[in-house]
Amino acid sequence: MDDSGVILTQTASTKNGDTHNLSRLVCSSHTGTHIDAPYHFTRDGKTVDRLSLYDLIGEALVVEVSADKLRDVDLNTYKRILFKTRNSELLKLKEFNREYVSLDYSAAELTVKNNVRVVGIDYLSIEAFET
């Protein structure tokens, strides 16, 4: 995987006589808050340019949940679900923690079965480390 960081190049500068300051930013699609399209995990999934913006915008259910409680959540009402877990505390640490809460395959299947269109989680990845 090539996730080679960020390149920031100044393309216009008021110090050089330009009327404005402008930069060009080149970075991986994994930089910062981002969307992983189904194609990120499945060979035949939609790519990000094929996603409907209407699926991404709207009312969402925020669920504070532990890893073993997802099955108790009623997913039929909402098409967008954001999981708040103990991961929020891990973000305060300087070191990466491999033991974060993630969605396993059965949980992902459950969201697909219930036609959930957007799933978010409060850490750097939604899948377990080294899967």
**Overall CATH class of the largest domain:** Alpha Beta
**How many discrete domains?**
2
CATH homology group of the largest domain: Putative cyclase
CATH topology of the largest domain: the name is Glucose Oxidase, domain 1
Instruction: Tell me the Rg in angstroms.
Output: 19 Å
Q: How many helix segments?
A: 3
Order of helices and strands: EEHEEHHE
Q: State mean pLDDT (0 to 100 scale).
A: 86
Q: Provide the β-strand percentage band.
A: 15-25%
> Shape from CA axes?
globular
The CA-CA distance between the termini, in Å, is: 14 Å
CATH architecture of the largest domain: 3-Layer(bba) Sandwich
The number of E-state strands comes to 5
Tell me about this structure.
The chain is α/β, with parallel strands linked by helices. It folds into two domains: 33 residues, no CATH class; 87 residues, Glucose Oxidase, domain 1. The chain contains three helices and five strands, in the order ββαββααβ. A three-stranded parallel β-sheet has the order 3-4-5, with no helix packed on it. A two-stranded antiparallel ribbon has the order 1-2. The longest helix is centred in the last third of the chain and has 9 residues. The model has no long low-confidence stretch (mean pLDDT 86).
